Amino acid sequence: MEQGIYERGLQRLKEVDDIAGEKVIDSLADISPDLGRYVIEFGFGEIYSRPGLNLQQRELATVAALTALGTAQPQLKVHLAAALNVGLSRLEITETIMQMALYAGFPAALNGMFAAKEVFAEHDRLASLQASQH
Amino acid sequence: MEQGIYERGLQRLKEVDDIAGEKVIDSLADISPDLGRYVIEFGFGEIYSRPGLNLQQRELATVAALTALGTAQPQLKVHLAAALNVGLSRLEITETIMQMALYAGFPAALNGMFAAKEVFAEHDRLASLQASQH
Amino acid sequence: MEQGIYERGLQRLKEVDDIAGEKVIDSLADISPDLGRYVIEFGFGEIYSRPGLNLQQRELATVAALTALGTAQPQLKVHLAAALNVGLSRLEITETIMQMALYAGFPAALNGMFAAKEVFAEHDRLASLQASQH
Amino acid sequence: MEQGIYERGLQRLKEVDDIAGEKVIDSLADISPDLGRYVIEFGFGEIYSRPGLNLQQRELATVAALTALGTAQPQLKVHLAAALNVGLSRLEITETIMQMALYAGFPAALNGMFAAKEVFAEHDRLASLQASQH
Amino acid sequence: MEQGIYERGLQRLKEVDDIAGEKVIDSLADISPDLGRYVIEFGFGEIYSRPGLNLQQRELATVAALTALGTAQPQLKVHLAAALNVGLSRLEITETIMQMALYAGFPAALNGMFAAKEVFAEHDRLASLQASQH
Amino acid sequence: MEQGIYERGLQRLKEVDDIAGEKVIDSLADISPDLGRYVIEFGFGEIYSRPGLNLQQRELATVAALTALGTAQPQLKVHLAAALNVGLSRLEITETIMQMALYAGFPAALNGMFAAKEVFAEHDRLASLQASQH
Fold it and tell me: pLDDT tens digits, residue range D55-89?
């Protein structure tokens, strides 16, 4: 893919989740940097850069899907943080997760909810850390 | 569950998808009417009647999850029709489905897209039928 | 595996579902007879021949699992017929399927229930056919 | 849902698994108490309170399904403890798990078996603790 | 993505499965041409064009994965045909499918095997058709 | 199954992964030794001892399937080590994992890649340990 898409993807990833995104890419550097590049180029440079849905809708869809699948806890946590970053409220997030009980069963919803609890607590911890530094 | 919840669920189901919802409930009548009752009471009387997400957000989350799971084509079609009914655009729907390629792979996205193609065509057929009747 | 296990498996398969089991084995004859042999030897000659669970418990567990997985409709139908054959009541079967709404979501339970509806109807059809022949 | 169903669900949950059930509900209190309420009301007040299957059959079905799905280890452990509580023998439980090798593959059966090993050990530990206190 | 990748992807797709690939792309033309473009660009222009694995290894991996997942029968059939096209023998294909019984259970292996039976029969039909035209 | 198959399976398991295989069997000894016996007899004595695919092809198929399923991390790690043992290169392994992004989504590929990173590091650690002992 051309250079422009990588740059666009990196930019988009930064809007969505600066810290976690970078951590994933870094952790792939010594095993499969190209997989990291595809996440940026195809994931964020293409899909997340398309018109038709705003970032709040995209993160809501992703939280729903990863909660339902139940096989991607690390990625769900990244996107729970991203969901907060793009402006979804905690209520919108927990309602989305709860709704998955209907489509993927209660264990999926429970495991998604416990992931959200963890991500929200980390978010609070970082916010209070930042507050105390000012 | 009390009577009120059943009534509320039925009302909510009608807002979302009048025809398909009723068809599912009817088809359960002679094998497990209680499963149909739970769909209405717990699914629509509880979850879909909660504040925090509007119906467009709920249907977007459901389309995302059912596309990603790939084990619920009949229910995906019901909710693709519901997504149109509650005002999601075709573009919002196809973008949601396409995004699932990232989280559940291309076959999931392709099978979701072919379901959308079918549901949109049926929607057009019904619309042109109604138009011709006036 | 030794000859005895194949014979024992065939015997066990006949107790569980004479017609459907044979049909599966036959349909594998020209593509992978060994896969059919493993179904009989390992599936029925080993697992279904073990003490510790009776056949009703084994079929109840299988109906639960296949309903929850949602990727094995043909095999679910075979085991729904088998569940009737080993003496589970229709109520026990539909309650097992309904319970899966909790663990795998409503679409899984609904698709399982519609499979049961089909299998029960076929069972009635065969029963009335047999009755009319006497 | 009306008050009665919540009370009935709580009662049913206590019969099935007093400690683990309460822990799940408690851990939801500050993130989504309503999800905990639905587990009690819909899960235990409705489904697990229905006639047609006894609690041993219900737990056997749940152990089968959660082992096969492979995405719900915490919930599988809760229900392995519940299975013991309602009187299923260890042999019935391990046979159910082993049978899942046929329907969901060996990794699912192995991971289920290791969960059972852990739950049985904890059960023994608690039993010996109680014995030493008398 | 730049033009070159689309061309490379189309070329690669033709090597793998000329007819079925084109049919998928065509069927997306009026609902989501971009999804078809991504299949070509990212799927075939990137992944299937990478060094490190030859096309036989790639198709063997794909047949294994799609058989195990059990949610992608249409795509499994496309790749069963592709597996033949790139030179895998029928024995290599059926052994790969059979092996999935270990990792995803017998229903997955059975449904994969019946798909292979269908694809092999269609392959024979086309071959005899071509033979009769000469 | 007869004695010969157990011996053949044990032999085959040793070729594939001496240490990890034995560990799994040992850890089943006090909960379900028969499940361990079936892994050896049916898994290695039957399936992995069949002609038609060599061990490199079998491990490539297994790595692909377990990465795609995403529910079997412990077993994936065993087979990543086995893949190295039977002579697949690290590049062949990481390419197989990366390809799964197409069929099961990026989270499946990422989680598979992180498992490979861990297994490769352990492999290096053992190799440098052995080197230092000479």
Answer: 999 999 999 999 999 999 999 999 999 999 999 99
Would you state the pLDDT for residue B3?
61
Q: CB–CB of B56/B86 below 8 Å? A: yes
Q: What is the pLDDT of residue D22?
A: 84
| Cα(B72)–Cα(E78) distance, integer angstroms | 21
Q: Is E123 exposed, middle or buried (0-12, 13-18, 19+ CB in 10 A)?
A: middle
For all residues of chain D together, what is the average pLDDT?
Answer: 94
b (16+ CB within 10 A) / e for D68-90: bbbbbbebbbbbbbbbbbbebeb
Judge: E35–B110 Cβ closer than 8 Å, yes or no. Answer: yes
User: What ipTM describes this predicted complex?
Assistant: 0.95
Burial per residue of B40-53, b for 16 or more beta-carbon CB atoms within 10 angstroms, e otherwise: bbbbbbbbbeeebb
E114 and E68, same domain (yes or no): yes
Same domain, D17 and D58: no
Mutation to test the A interface, candidates D23, D27, D32, most A Cβ within 10 Å? D32
- Which chains have 3+ CB pairs within 8 A of F? A, B, C, D, E
> Based on the domain organization, do A61 and A118 belong to the same domain?
yes
Report CB contact under 8 Å: C91, D47: no
**Per-residue pLDDT at C18 exceeds 90:** no
Per the structure, the complete domain to which residue F32 belongs is given by 1-50
The shortest C-alpha distance from D77 to chain F (Å) reads 15
In eight-state DSSP terms, residue C118 is H
Q: Which of B2-6, C12-16, F90-94 has the lowest mean pLDDT?
A: B2-6
Question: Residue E50 is which amino acid?
Answer: R
Are A71 and A36 within 8 A, CB to CB? no
Query: Domain total for chain D?
Result: 2
Q: What is the pLDDT of residues E5-23, one digit of tens each?
A: 999 999 999 999 878 788 8
Shortest Cα–Cα distance, F63 to chain B (Å) = 17
Q: Are residues C72 and C34 in the same domain?
A: no
User: Is the overall model pTM greater than 0.90, yes or no?
Assistant: yes
**B114 vs E43: CB contact, 8 Å cut-off?**
no
Please give the mean pLDDT across all residues of chain F: 94
Whether residue F41 sits in one domain with residue F89: no
What lies within 8 Å, CB to CB, of F11 at 6+ separation is none
Contact pairs from chain A to chain F, CB under 8 Å:
50
B100 and B123 share one domain: yes
CB contact under 8 A, C94 and B32: yes
Q: Does B70 touch chain A (CB under 8 A)?
A: no
Measured distance CA(F51)–CA(E12) in Å, rounded: 30
Q: Tell me the pLDDT tens digit for each residue of B76-86.
A: 999 999 999 99
Size of the A and C interface in Cβ pairs below 8 Å: 22
Question: How far is A2 from B70, CA to CA, in rounded Å?
Answer: 32
Q: Which amino acid is at E8?
A: R
Three-state DSSP at F87 gives coil
Residues of chain D with pLDDT under 70: 1-3
- The nearest alpha carbon in chain C to A103 belongs to C105
Query: Is the pLDDT at E2 greater than 80, yes or no?
Result: no
- Alpha carbons within 13 angstroms on the beta-carbon side of residue A59 total 25
pLDDT in tens, A70-87: 999 999 999 999 999 999
Q: E114 and E88 in one domain?
A: yes
Judge if D44 and D76 occupy the same domain: no
Q: Under DSSP, is residue C96 helix (H, G, I), strand (E, B) or coil?
A: helix
CATH of the domain at E95: 1.20.1290.10
Contacts of B93 (CB under 8 A, 6+ apart): B63, B80, B83, B84, B116
Cβ contact (<8 Å) for B75 and C110? yes
